[in-house]
Amino acid sequence: MRTPNWFLKKNMMSKALLPLSAVYWLVGKTVFIIRHFGQKKPKTPVICVGGLLAGGTGKTPIVREIAKRLSGSVVVMRGYKGGDEAKMLLSSGIPVITGADRKKSIDAAEKAGRKHIIMDDGFQNPTVKKYKSILVFDGKIGVGNGFMLPAGPLREPVRAGIRRADAVIIIGDRNQGISEIAKRYKKPVFSAKNRAVNPGISSNVFAFAGIGYPQKFFTSVGGMAGMEIVGAESFPDHHMYSARDMEKIIRNAGDLGADYIVTTEKDWVRLSPEYQERIDFIPLETTIEDGFWKWLPLKKK
Are strands 189-196 and 284-288 parallel, antiparallel or unpaired? Predict the structure, then answer.
């Protein structure tokens, strides 16, 4: 889905949807309590990297860094719409198990003898007991307009979510008051940074993205030395690109005088090989502050 424009600011539409948010919260809370019964308690430590917002907030790059640091790790995730995040992780040499049933994925990971299980998303899923739950926020987006779905992007109230978490990671320099809330509940807050890496392009580019908040990508590309965006096009999150989509992108890029077409790695892995050869992706380098790695080590229970 495309991220509704009212998710990031309060307006007439978001306020009109508030009654539905109350219903969403009540139903979600009831389902959470019911699903908690019969919770699976894995012998292998499960580290959940999740978020409170619908749409991408940068969880998967954090997952990738944790998996690279913890030897013997496997990532479990849903693999939504073809599994673009799974393909990204696999390309980095990280084992991945996908499936809608978290319990079955955990069982498969334990049978494979993995030392650590990292759950990409699933913070709101109580069917598996987590050893540690980490909430990830994008500093620029924060908590959006502060409302719950469908009036805003939140899956649950901010304070309730942070209270259940073990730690918070904020990507970027801003934190929109998130740190203050986390500290109120005595939760450690760590900073992380994503750096877009120029793949060797110095010219006019046309950018496209089908992620939760595409403007983040366009801003990153526009701020890179040597690159100038002459056009950009956004698509719904997890969009599966058709040949018609790609030909339109290529045609628009040519009309605007672009020498290159660029997209995110997450979008690039969803393209067919013939279009991957014609499109460049902008890699992200993710760094998490040293304090996080000192906090993370798993202790025997």
Answer: antiparallel
Are the C-beta atoms of residues 55 and 237 closer than 8 Å to each other?
yes
The token duo for 259 is 């020498």
Omega within 30 of 0 (cis) for the link into 297:
no
* Residue found by looking up tokens 């018609």 in the block: 244
Closest CA to 275 of 254, 246, 296: 246
Structural contact between residues 161 and 74, judged by C-beta atoms closer than 8 angstroms: no
The DSSP result for 104-135, as a single string, is HHHHHHHHTT-SEEEEES-TT-TTB--SEEEE
SS (H, E, C) 190-225: EEEEEEECCCCCCCEEEEEECCCCHHHHHHHHHCCC
Query: Does residue 231 sit in helix, strand or coil?
Result: strand
Cα gap 5→32, rounded to integer Å? 28
pTM for the model: 0.91
Structure tokens that stand for 29 in this block: 């809370």
Burial class (CB in 10 A: 0-12, 13-18, 19+), 110: middle
Q: Tokens for 57?
A: 């907030």
pLDDT digits (tens, 9 = 90+) for 218-272: 998 988 888 999 999 999 988 999 999 999 999 999 999 999 999 999 999 999 9
